[in-house]
Amino acid sequence: MAGSHSLWRPPRSCDVYWSEFKHCKSLFNRFHEYYTYGKSPDCQQWKQDYYTCKEWEKNHSTQAKESLQESERKRVAEQRKFTPVWELRKTPPADWHLPLNQDKPQDS
Amino acid sequence: MAQSRAEEDDYRNKQPMHEQQHGEPKQEDYGYSLYPERSGSKYKQGSIGESLFTFKHKCHIMLQFAMDTSPYAKLLLAAMRTSGCAVHKDRHFSCEDCDGTVSGGFDAATSQIVLCQNNIHQQAHMNRVVTHELIHAFDHCRARVDWFTDFRHLACSEIRAANLSGDCSFVNEVSRFNFGLKEHHQECVRSRALRSILAVRKVSREEAERVVDEVFDSCFRDHAPFGRIPHSKKDAKFAYRDFENRDRYYANL
């Protein structure tokens, strides 16, 4: 749709991509990636996304838009790569906001 | 309740005591015995005794500072507010004297986080305990967690709390003389979750290990609401930035 294209902007602002890249490459992060996963972090995608973002800012190309969307969707998918142990709620617990004296469990 | 020990940082989930008949063999107490003030405090609230003989005031000050300045805590509080569980300091936090070296806990029965004022003396420790317990509260808020009868749920929340609160940071592990490098974070998370379960449930070590193994892969990958494993305040700040920009993010995906 012609209208939605002009309303679209990158999911993150370009400077965020750059700061994530720098942070990813830092000694601190590289150490913690090894400490957690036993491997080096893969930071190139952040750098790539930064340049794509800048390219989109310059000429609003569809290719840049799609490239960024694909990259971010992959990130979201990575974060969802597990089967939840529990069922998610649709509403918060009913007793969360109840005052305390009504909340106490009954003693036998 | 999820509990945290001062020295060893064991976190435990606390659950209400089941009613006991006279003469029945002693039931599971779900760790409540470590929190004697859950059934009534020693000093009357606001009394001289309370201000002279407890660390309650210091606990409240450190708690407020943690809520105001820790990016971990701020993100969790914001995420909970979004989920409909706004946290009010006076209602959802309680500074109490606890037994032993426990640092804190989450009491699902009253939707309260207990902070052990007699065992938390440094701001960094308070920050970590608050983060850990808020993760339990966050899980309680957003999921149907069966704290009382499903070990898998208990284990899962403990794995997440150990993973995401900084409990298993390299520095903290070294301070406990647990030296390890490659993938040590995972070993730490696993062992702390195991210890938590063993501390609050009358279950064999083999059974507890089995439960932790069963849910580990899933729960270790669940980084909500951070979106990453925050190893530092900077990680947590980046995560908070992402959370604040989530509307733009998902709208343009």
UniProtKB/TrEMBL annotation, chain A:
UniProt similarity note: Belongs to the UPF0545 family.
PANTHER family in alphabetical order: UPF0545 PROTEIN C22ORF39
GO CC annotation, single: synaptic cleft
Protein name as annotated: Synaptic plasticity regulator PANTS
Pfam families (UniProt xref): PANTS-like
InterPro entries: Pants/Emi1-like
Disordered as annotated region, ranges: 84-108
Compartments where found: Synaptic cleft
UniProtKB/TrEMBL annotation, chain B:
Signal peptide: none
Gene Ontology cellular-component annotations: mitochondrion
UniProt feature coiled coil, ranges: none
Biased composition (Basic and acidic residues): 11-29
GO molecular function, one term: metal ion binding
Keyword hit for Protease: yes
Family under the similarity heading: Belongs to the peptidase M76 family.
Protein name: Mitochondrial inner membrane protease ATP23
Organism listed in the record: Culter alburnus
